[in-house]
Write a structure and sequence with these properties.
Layout (H helix, E strand, L loop, with lengths): L1 H39 L6 H22 L15 H35 L12 H5 L1 H24 L1
Helix pairs in contact: 1-2, 1-5, 2-5, 3-5
């Protein structure tokens, strides 16, 4: 079980590293666009489109690590007044509901990506980027998120016993 925990933690950490790298790339792309427009009165023609793709990827790849580090917004007005055992029970229950919702989102993003692939959809901009390539990060990020929530639930159950 410890091996599973460590593997999921490493995967979420790598997701966070990749997410931060994508954010840096996003900033560099925007700075390049600004530089080229200012000094050469030209445009890359893809900066708007690809900055959106990079932002989407950084969000989805960072979800798991953010959850692992307890950085998602939590409203604990009620749970702050409860015992640790009751809090653990609520956390496990909420984690199970989260897994159900994320599994549905995972399924839908796979269908969404597959449809884009099957219909050979491309972006409407100059680059004509195949959309499935930009959408692959959604099921990947959600899968990492599901694994991280699963570790959270398993640890909560283990501590409850």
């Amino acid at each position: 079980m410890k091996t599973f925990y460590n593997t999921v933690n490493k995967l979420s950490l790598w997701g966070a590293y990749l997410s931060s790298l994508l954010l840096v790339s996003l900033v560099l792309l925007i700075l390049t666009e600004i530089f080229i427009r200012y000094f050469f009165d030209m445009s890359t023609m893809i900066a708007d489109e690809y900055s959106g793709y990079l932002y989407l990827a950084s969000i989805f790849l960072g979800l798991a690590y953010t959850f692992k580090e307890d950085a998602h917004i939590r409203i604990n007005i009620i749970t702050s007044k409860m015992s640790k055992k009751a809090n653990r029970f609520i956390d496990v229950f909420a984690g199970l509901i989260t897994i159900v919702v994320l599994t549905f989102a995972f399924y839908r993003t796979i269908l969404f990506t597959y449809d884009s692939y099957e219909m050979e959809m491309v972006s409407e901009s100059v680059s004509e980027t195949p959309l499935y390539l930009t959408q692959l990060v959604m099921p990947l990020g959600i899968a990492l998120f599901i694994l991280t929530v699963l570790v959270f639930v398993l640890k909560g159950i283990k501590n409850d016993i």
